Structure formats: structure tokens, C-alpha cells
Amino acid sequence: MSIGVHNIGQGCVTCLDYDEHYILTFPNGYGRQVNALFGISLFNALSILTVPWIELGGECSINCSKTGYNASIVFHTKPFYGGKKHRITAEIFSPNDKKPFCSIEGEWNGVMYAKYTTGENAVFIDTKKMPTIKKKVRKLEDQEDFESRCLWKDVTYNLK
After folding, report:
1. Model's pTM, two decimal places?
2. How far is it, in rounded angstroms, from Cα 82 to Cα 84?
3. For the chain, which end, N or C, has fewer CB atoms within 10 Å of the first or last residue's CB respectively?
4. Cβ distance 80 to 100 under 8 Å?
């Protein structure tokens, strides 16, 4: 039992300190829940469903037109038997290079490790140790009619 959302389009992230703009694509999202046992009656099956989980899957890219650096990222979905949830692999390329100078693997919601062509291995990022940064958004009354928070305020209120 699952549901999938295929994200289309792209996003733009701007790093103001460096005057860099990154164009990125998004992974697909999945809500999953599977039976823990097979070959049992439907009545019994309903009582032993596993805990549902959210996972990301598919390929994404990040490109910086100013520097020419780019990355290819793969979010791996959990296989039916065995395997781990939340796995990610990525390759980072210098401008005009066909071979990556860095490969990354790990869990997108945990620790990711980098392996460089120089032979160096290091922790790329540990998301569990990252501080939470509060979003900076304008007050609702200062937003235009079609800005996201203003447009969706009634839905957000009713969901809460």
C-alpha cells in the first residue's frame, strides 16, 4: 500500500553572499505501508501492517551557471526485501568534466560520506547535528495575494 507524488519542474536557490544561483530538480515522494506477513487472511493482515514511512526516490540535479559546477543525485527507495530506507548517492562534477571529483553516499536524513578522487574520505554532512534555523518570511499582511503563505493560509489554518 503506497502513494507516490511525482515532482515536476525546478527550483532556484540563490546564495546572496556569493551571487550564485542554483537550478535544481526534485525527487519523487512516496508514502508507504506494507504487510509484515504474507499468505494470511485479510482480517489478520489489517492488524499487522507495518508503521508507515515517507521516502524519496528518483534522480535530481543541481547546476550553478556561474561556476559551472553540477551534481547528479539519486534517492534510492527501499527494496521490497531487505535494504535500507533513505539512501542517497551523488556525484559532483567540476565545470566541463565528465568524471566526478567527489562521490557521496549515505542517508539523506542522517549522515552522508564523501569520497574524493584524491583518496580522501570524510563526513560530508550529518543532518542530525545540524541546527534548526527559523524561516524568515514576511508577515501575511505584507505578502501579495498569490504568495504561498497568503494563498494557502486558510488551508494551513484548517489543517492545524
Report:
1. 0.75
2. 7
3. C
4. no
